[in-house]
Design goal:
mainly alpha, globular
Amino acid sequence: MPATTPRPDSWRTVAAAMFACGWGGNQFTPLLLMYRRLGGYSTLSVDAFLGAYVVGLVPGLLLAGPVSDRHGRRPVLVAGAVASAVASLVLCFGGQSAWPIYAGRLITGFAVGIAMSVGSSWVKELSSGADGGLAARRAALCQTAGFGLGAGVAGVLAQWGPWPMVSPYAVHLLITVAIPVLLLRVPETRPPLADATGSVRQLLTALVDDLRVPAPARRRFRLVVLPMAPWVFGAAGLAYAVMPQLVGFRVGDWGLAYATGLTVLTLGTGAAVQPVARWLHGEAGNGKAGNGEAGTRTGRAPVAAMAVMLLGAALCAANAVLLSPWLAAVAAAALGAGYGIAVVSGLLEIQRMAGPDDLAGLTGIYYTLAYAGFLLPTVLATLSSWLSYPVMLAAVAAAALVCLGLVVTGARVTESAAPAR
């Protein structure tokens, strides 16, 4: 069955699905203080809720992409949108018990994983008349907007609205419920492969193949993408999970609103700087993954991303001593800028590396590495019984410096990733 020729605006519906799933994924983040105060959960418990989200993300990111490469984008993303709505339904009624929260966050992570790996690939394929940089920015911007607005609305409702443990999730349900139906009208760009059915062993082999970085790109992947990717959401975790908990006592009853503000500031800055990432990348403007054109990229965007990440991490380390709400905001803005540049430049790198048959799989690999950084708040909370936050955040800043050195070296010694197959 041939793929249907997409309309120029077909990508918007897929972007809406990414937006809705991103909204559901990040609406929980500013509510961490609410669960501590109203639910009585410890710092380690609420950080573990974030960890459950990441655990759900991994299969969504690693499996959904390759499955959609073989069976089509539409059915997989529809399933992700449905899962996002189900997760909010679970969380609506689970605020008084930890296990429903873990379950809701796990399902949320799975849905976001699908949206990010499959949605990013589908947006690129539906943006066939645009250059690769514009397609990457569209996907990253929709994802970031969903993360930011979801957190902002949820935080406002939890601080000033009725039923703080219910109303944020009810709003998400309302904006998500129609998305699966709308997706059914979007043209399919990856019709099912003729050999998509077969033995379990054949299917697993095909999935592994889709997740393998093409040989010409492996060196650049190891030296540029790998050291940078975990900082994408590691920066987010520092900005709006760690900082609000450290300085929350300084803002009193405004703690929830302050945490919401840091989340929106981080992601808003990230969205604002994303056009800069393409300029830093030096895209020729007509390069498309898989067409053999190298463009004029020099690796400036990954280097710039890690330099700004280092600044943000250093500010967090300093603020672990000073405990200033204002310095936390400056750190959040710096980390948001690093996030915005890194997420776009990483997608551009992956789109260069991937061929049409493994684009979603490699996108899933990239986002899995990126989201590994979101475990950072949980790791820090676990280690806080033995180490102080000033010591731990100084170590985080030192790690950012090492990764910056790796990216600088990698960008210098490798060429732009050769398109696959």
